[in-house]
Specification:
Layout: H1 6-29, H2 36-39, H3 58-75, H4 77-82, H5 84-112
């Protein structure tokens, strides 16, 4: 049974070895010309307004997490849409309940003010 996994382990070992060797080659052969311009904050070619170490509001992260959460939940709609005819009425009802729960969660988040930027 273990012999079936030998090619997998060899691929993982080869990939890790390749990554470490390329990183070390870059450290040894790569150019080292540090200056203040390279270490400054880059803002799309404009003069930096603030430091790169500035703290962001928790609301920013909350909106980002909620976006990812609702985005991943919407991904579940695609397989359902592809197999809609095979699922029949039971699949429709289950997806309706899923969408209803999703909308209740969205309404809760909206009413709590988690999507407000002020």
């Amino acid at each position: 049974m273990v012999e079936n996994y030998i090619p997998l382990f060899m691929m993982i070992a080869g990939g890790l070895t390749f990554a470490v060797v390329m990183g070390k080659i870059n450290q040894v052969l790569g150019p080292r010309r540090p200056n203040a311009e390279k270490y400054s904050t880059y803002e799309s070619g404009m003069e930096p307004v603030r430091t790169a170490r500035e703290r962001f509001s928790v609301k920013y992260y909350l909106v980002a997490v909620l976006f990812i959460l609702f985005d991943i939940e919407i991904v579940f709609l695609f397989p359902w849409a592809v197999s809609f005819r095979q699922l029949g009425i039971q699949g429709f009802v289950v997806m309706f309940v899923f969408i209803f729960v999703l909308l209740v969660g969205f309404y809760y988040v909206w009413r709590k003010g988690a999507l407000e930027w002020d």
